[in-house]
Structure formats: structure tokens, C-alpha cells
Write a structure and sequence with these properties.
The chain has 2 domains: about 300 residues, 3-Layer(aba) Sandwich (UDP-N-acetylmuramoyl-L-alanine:D-glutamate ligase), CATH 3.40.1190.10; about 140 residues, Alpha-Beta Complex (Protein-Tyrosine Phosphatase, Chain A). The strands form 3 sheets. Strands 4-3-2-5-1-6-7-8 form an 8-stranded mixed sheet, with helices on both faces. Strands 12-13-17-14-15-16 form a 6-stranded mixed sheet, with helices on both faces. By secondary structure, it is of the alpha/beta class. The protein contains 15 helices and 17 strands. The two termini are about 20 Å apart. Helix content is about 40%, strand content about 20%. The chain is globular, with a radius of gyration of 22 Å. The longest helix is centred in the first third of the chain and has 19 residues.
Length: about 450
């Protein structure tokens, strides 16, 4: 590492330490007043480009990356704001398909810091970390400048700091129970909160939803006179075939059919994310029944998509997969993908879950495809104690299928040894694999253990 790189990373750590003194992203005070005050002081950078706003419970980051790839391949300069990050904070703000540099991240922070201080001093509640990050992203995109910004909601919708962006396209991924301590356990209520990103006269691209979530979202669409395109009606996956390194898709878009689309990602959920992303970009360009996007551009874009920490293979033999599933809905999609697209004879999971999550539900969804589970703790102060996790896991797996390793690196090593365990003097178990999952933090630290760079 050069001295310049080392200095930039040091400055990045200093900035992160300053940001971490603020309210964490998991603590919210429902108001857009602070972020509006900041963007007003910054001359409303979020209005200098077109915005695609993406909400939902699962699939937001993957869909955001696909939308980014499609817009970029079609010829726009694109910014992408996502959260949380897997390994390095710079991942949250991407321009031209790549995370901004540590130097650019620090510069973005220093540029907005004086205005943040003004907002802090004008009210009783200081700006949260996420609010500051959102201001940084909006400003960085305006400075670049980008022509389009793909903005992922942080938490909820109506009161999320990103909602000061006036997006003409609102994309809503599947809504499920998560962040119950902030959003509650009423699915219709959660859906109404997430539907808060829908603006009057906008176009809503809607993934298939549970009935109560669908009804709540459609009510909001009618209320603000928005237009809607629905998965399974106006767009969707027509055909999906598992292929080497991913899947081959036939997609129904808003403007026509797109054949022979290779997606280098695993799982039916990623195919549906692809259909959602395609319809989003068609809506962005106004594509309809008489006009569709260039098919070759669509194929090229999807073929280029990478989704770090989403059923990502980080080692070949035995295979080690990393996935950021952190709630039962995400774990169910993960288990279905493993069951349909992999042929492990023995899959060992390494699991660390944050304390506020539904660990029992997550374990229950994974149990059918996992032989044994190694329970551990990632570096987050919110991580559940491994012994507490074991007490939950024993009801799902039984004690004979549980191992506890307090350190993540030791847990991964133990799981690899279990996956390649000798069954007799001459034979090694074939088809052994390791799955590192349970939270975004676990996935990010799993990637780092295998030398993967932030992406």
C-alpha cells in the first residue's frame, strides 16, 4: 500500500469516526426537516438529475445495481446510493458503476460539514449519520455531475432521508417483516410506510407482493394519481433456465419481450429482480407497448452485473458462498436458490445475526438445506451472543448439528474443515460447501476473509 493510499484510508477512518458519533442508522426521529434544511443550504443538489427511488424489504441493492448497469449501458452517467455497506463506507456512493475513492468520500464529507453544523445548531435534534451520508451522496452526484441517480431507501420510506428526492420513478421491491422494532409487525402498515416514496403523478414499478401489502401500496398509488406497472401483469419473468455461472432468462418488459438474457447471479429471486429492474429502466425512458429498449444493450448490461455478498462464491474447493440474508424472507429466497441450483451433499452454514433480528425465523428457513451450523459473532456491537444464538438454534437444528465458535475467522475455518471432512481413510466428502450468512456485516467480513475487495 502506497503512502497516499494509506493516508486516504486514515482520513476515511477519521471521517467515519466523526460520523459514528451521530445517531446510528438504526435510530430515527421521523422528520424530513433536517435533511430538507441541509439540501436547501446545498442548493438542492438532488434536483440536478433524474432520480430512480427504490424501496422494499429485500432485493433493493441487487435491483439498484441492475438498474445502474442498464442505465449506464444505454449511455447515461449514473450515480448509485445504497446502504449499508459490506466492507468499506465508500461502497455506499458509486459513480460510473464503482465506489467513489476514499479521497472523494472525505472530500464530500468536508464539503457538507459546515452546512451540517448549521443544521445541527438550529434545532434540538442533530442530524443522524444516515442524513449526513444522504446529503453527501446528493452533493457528490451533482458535482460529478451524473445524469441519473439510483437511490436506495435506507429504512422505511416516508420518513427516510432519501425521500426529499423528487423521483419520477418509484420502484418497490417485495415487502416483508423486518426492522420490527422501528416499523412494527403490521405488514400493511409497513407497506404504507414504504409507499411513502410514491410522488404525485409518478410511475410506480411494483414487485409482486403479499395481498395486504399490495392493497396498501395500491391505495397510495390511487391517492396521489400515480401510474403503476405490476409484476405478473405488465412485466415479469417468462422463462428461467439454470446455466453455468448463473441463469438464462426470457423477460417480459413494458415495451416487449427480451430473449436470451444471461444473468450471472443465482436464484429465482434474482431473476425477478432483473424483471423489476428492466421495467424500471423502461419506465425511466418512457418505453411502452410500441417501444422497447435495445435488446443487445439489455443483454450486455445484465451480463455485467455483480452483486457482492449475494450468494457470491468466494472460494472454489470446497465452495464457500457468502450471502447477506438477514431476515426470514431473505433466508427463504437463499434456501430456494441453493436447493434449485446447487448440489451440495453437505452444506455447513456459518451464522452471525444481529440481536434485534428474527434469528429463529432465519434459522427455520435455512434448516432444510443446511447439514450443520457454526454459530459465531461478527464485529458489530449489535451482534447476538453465540451462546444466545445457540439456545435459539437448538429448537430448529437440535444440539447435534450445532457448533459454537466465538470468532468469525475460527468459525469459517471450522466450517471448511467440516465440509471437507474425511469419511474414511481414503475418501473425502464430495460436494461439500460452506455458506456464510446472517447479516450484511457477516457477509462483508466473510468477503474480507477471502481477500475480496470492496465493490
Amino acid at each position: 500500500m502506497s503512502g497516499t493510499e494509506s493516508g486516504a484510508l486514515h482520513e476515511l477512518r477519521v471521517v467515519e469516526a466523526e460520523l459514528n458519533e451521530r445517531w446510528p442508522e438504526t435510530k430515527i426521529e421521523p422528520s424530513l426537516d433536517r435533511i430538507r434544511a441541509l439540501t436547501d443550504l446545498l442548493a438542492e443538489p438532488q434536483r440536478s438529475y433524474q432520480v430512480v427511488h427504490i424501496a422494499g424489504t429485500n432485493g433493493k441493492s441487487s435491483t439498484s445495481r441492475m438498474v445502474d448497469a442498464l442505465l449506464t449501458r444505454i449511455g447515461l452517467r449514473v450515480g448509485r446510493y445504497t446502504s449499508p455497506h459490506l466492507q468499506l463506507a465508500t461502497e455506499r456512493i458509486s459513480i460510473d458503476g464503482k465506489p467513489i475513492s476514499p479521497e472523494a468520500y472525505v472530500e464530500a464529507y468536508r464539503d457538507v460539514a459546515p452546512y451540517v453544523s448549521i443544521v445541527d445548531n438550529s434545532g434540538d435534534v442533530k442530524m443522524s449519520k444516515f442524513e449526513v451520508l444522504t446529503g453527501m451522496a446528493f452533493a457528490a452526484f451533482a458535482d460529478a455531475p451524473v445524469e441519473a441517480a439510483v437511490i436506495e431507501v435506507g429504512l422505511g420510506g416516508s420518513w427516510d432521508a432519501t425521500n426529499v428526492a423528487d423521483a419520477h420513478i418509484a420502484t418497490i421491491c417485495p415487502v416483508a417483516l423486518d426492522h420490527a422494532e422501528y416499523l412494527g409487525t403490521d405488514l400493511a402498515g409497513i407497506a404504507r410506510e414504504k409507499a411513502g416514496i410514491i410522488k404525485p403523478g409518478s410511475v410506480v414499478v411494483l414487485a409482486a407482493q403479499a395481498a395486504e401489502a399490495q392493497a396498501a401500496i395500491m391505495e397510495k398509488i390511487a391517492e396521489v394519481d400515480a401510474t403503476v406497472a405490476r409484476e405478473g401483469q405488465e412485466f415479469g419473468v417468462l422463462n428461467r433456465t439454470v446455466a453455468v455461472g448463473g441463469q438464462m432468462l426470457r423477460l417480459q418488459g413494458l415495451g416487449g419481450t427480451y430473449d436470451e438474457v444471461f444473468l450471472p447471479l443465482h436464484g429465482e429471486h434474482q431473476a425477478r429482480n432483473a424483471a423489476l429492474a428492466l421495467a424500471t429502466v423502461e419506465a425511466f425512458f418512457g418505453a411502452g407497448k410500441k417501444h422497447q429498449l435495445d435488446v443487445e444493450a439489455v443483454r450486455d448490461a445484465f451480463a455485467s452485473v455483480i452483486t457482492p455478498g449475494r450468494l457470491e462464491r468466494v472460494r472454489a474447493a470446497p465452495a464457500v458462498l457468502v450471502d447477506a440474508a438477514h431476515n426470514p424472507h431473505g433466508a427463504r429466497a437463499l434456501a430456494e436458490a441453493i436447493s434449485s441450483e446447487f448440489s451440495f451433499r453437505r452444506l455447513v452454514a456459518v451464522l452471525s445475526v444481529l440481536g434485534e433480528k428474527d434469528a429463529h425465523g432465519l434459522l427455520r428457513e435455512l434448516e432444510p438445506v443446511v447439514e450443520e451450523v457454526v454459530l459465531t459473532r461478527n464485529s458489530s456491537p449489535r451482534a447476538m451472543d453465540p451462546d444466545e444464538l445457540a439456545a435459539i438454534a437448538k429448537d430448529v437444528f437440535g444440539m447435534d448439528r450445532i457448533v459454537v465458535e466465538p470468532r468469525l475467522d475460527d468459525a469459517v475455518e471450522t466450517a471448511i474443515q467440516m465440509a471437507e471432512e474425511i469419511t474414511d481413510d481414503t475418501e473425502t466428502v464430495s460436494g461439500g460447501g460452506v455458506l456464510i450468512t446472517g447479516s450484511v456485516v457477516t457477509a462483508g467480513e466473510g468477503r474480507a476473509l477471502f481477500g475480496k475487495e470492496p465493490a
